[in-house]
Write a structure and sequence with these properties.
- There is one protein chain.
- The chain has six helices and eight strands; from the N terminus they run ββααααβββαβαββ.
- By secondary structure, it is of the alpha+beta class.
């Protein structure tokens, strides 16, 4: 699957994407803000297995984010679905050199439109570590609301971390 925006293309991952995704995820600014499962990928081989496992899982929709001009993979985004309850948990990352240039906004607009229009979801959730102010502000800009604080929810790099719980309803989404 491929979705095309103004600045980016998001598409299903290919095995050949693993090397670039692994390199992107190794950047300290990226890895410290990622979920612990992704942060624990230690090789291109593990990254490839993770990308392909997500591609086969009917309850996951994972994408690589590609700069339309350079054709470079600049990040990932995806959804973990709960079909019965019509919601998904979203995740995203874009490499630092693309921060503040609306690439993330373009990618997440594509992902959210896909979730609400194609998948007919009612709600999208996201967890953001409390120290990740950039991602929290980004999510709010998209229309996500802070719904609570999950204390010591995630175990990462030897310690438990707090996370803001965010939610966006279809009726609140403004394209």
């Amino acid at each position: 699957m491929k979705l095309i925006g103004k600045k980016v293309i998001i598409r299903s991952p290919k095995p050949s994407d693993a090397k670039q995704v692994f390199e992107n995820n190794k950047q300290p600014e990226i890895s410290k803000n990622m979920g612990s499962r992704i942060d624990n990928l230690k090789s291109v081989k593990e990254t490839k297995a993770w990308l392909m496992r997500g591609k086969k899982d009917k309850l996951r929709r994972g994408f690589v984010v590609i700069d339309k001009k350079t054709k470079k993979i600049i990040g990932t985004c995806g959804l973990k679905l709960d079909d019965k309850n019509k919601f998904a948990t979203a995740g995203w990352s874009i490499i630092k050199e693309y921060w503040g240039k609306n690439y993330s906004i373009d990618a997440l607009h594509l992902l959210i439109n896909f979730a609400f229009k194609k998948l007919k979801l009612n709600r999208i959730e996201a967890d953001v570590y409390t120290f990740n102010h950039r991602s929290l502000n980004f999510a709010k800009k998209l229309g996500f609301k802070v719904e609570g604080l999950a204390r010591k929810k995630w175990f990462k790099r030897g310690k438990f971390l707090d996370a803001y719980m965010l939610g966006l309803l279809r009726k609140e989404w403004k394209e």
